[in-house]
Amino acid sequence: MARRKVVTGVLLAAGSLAGSVLVRRRAARKRERVDLYAEDGSMHSFAEGTPEADRLLPIAHELLPLK
Amino acid sequence: MDAAQAIADLTEISPQVKQVVVIGADGSLKGSNVADEAAAERLVAGAKHLLEAAEQLRPGVAQLEAATVTGSVFVVRDGDRTIAGTTTPEPTVGLVFYDLKTCLRSIEEPKPKPRRRAPAKKKEAADGTA
């Protein structure tokens, strides 16, 4: 009986952990960002809220349809 | 291949790509799938503005993606030509960049017209045949 409770507890913990990871990933993907790729192959990513993204994202918003 | 055909091929193989404009070396619109010409010119101006602003932040930018919740704007430079496109939200970034580059490279640049040769001067007097 005790063993069954432990297994149930572990399964619940694992499930909630996996769920939170999925929710976080989805939320991260929904964040706005700007990725700049240089000629030398390097890449810089700027998430919304950074000065770089705040400068470029409004230009992109003007070009995209409103939701 | 001309720009219209290349863009049609691009949007057929990559349905997440919506509006596309091709910008020539002189900065003018060379091709587009946007029916409204004013809207196409707005996309051209916006793409140039994005590239200029990105260049000020990080010199040597070859391509960029601005991802928003309503979609993404991609701008790709190849030589002195540029292609810009809008997509649906959360596109497959690598594929879109590849398809845009392939589209741009498949568009032939208009060749400069060959200069007309000046008509050859008659050599009658010099030859002494007349």
Describe the overall structure.
The complex is a heterodimer of chains A (67) and B (130). Chain A contains 2 helices and 2 strands, in the order αββα. With 67 residues, chain A is an alpha+beta fold. Chain A has 2 domains: 1-30; 32-67, no CATH class. Chain A has a two-stranded antiparallel ribbon. Chain B is of the alpha+beta class and 130 residues long. Chain B has one domain (3-108): Beta-Lactamase, CATH 3.30.450.30. Chain B has 4 helices and 5 strands, in the order H-E-E-H-E-E-E-H-H. Chain B has helices at 3-13, 37-57, 93-106, 124-127; strands at residues 17-23, 29-32, 61-68, 71-78, 81-87. In chain B, strands 2-1-5-4-3 form a 5-stranded antiparallel sheet, with helices on both faces. In chain B, strand 1 (17-23) and strand 2 (29-32) form a beta hairpin. Chain B is elongated. The chains are: A alpha+beta (67), B alpha+beta (130). The interface between A and B is medium-sized, with 25 and 28 residues. Strand 1 of chain A pairs antiparallel with strand 3 of chain B, so a sheet runs across the interface.
State Rg of chain B.
21 Å
The H/E string of chain B reads HEEHEEEHH
Contiguous runs where pLDDT drops below 50 for at least 5 residues of chain B? none
Largest beta-sheet characterization of chain B: 5 strands, antiparallel
Euclidean distance between termini CA atoms of chain B: 52 Å
**Coarse morphology of chain A:** elongated
What integer is the average pLDDT of chain A?
A: 87
Structural class of chain A: alpha+beta
How would you write the strand order of the largest sheet of chain B?
2-1-5-4-3
Strand content of chain B: 25-35%
Q: CATH homologous superfamily of chain B, by name?
A: Dynein light chain 2a, cytoplasmic
CATH architecture of chain B: 2-Layer Sandwich
Query: Distance N terminus to C terminus of chain A?
Result: 53 Å
Which structural class is indicated by helix and strand composition of chain B?
Answer: alpha+beta
Q: How many helical stretches of chain A? A: 2
What is the helix content of chain B?
25-40%
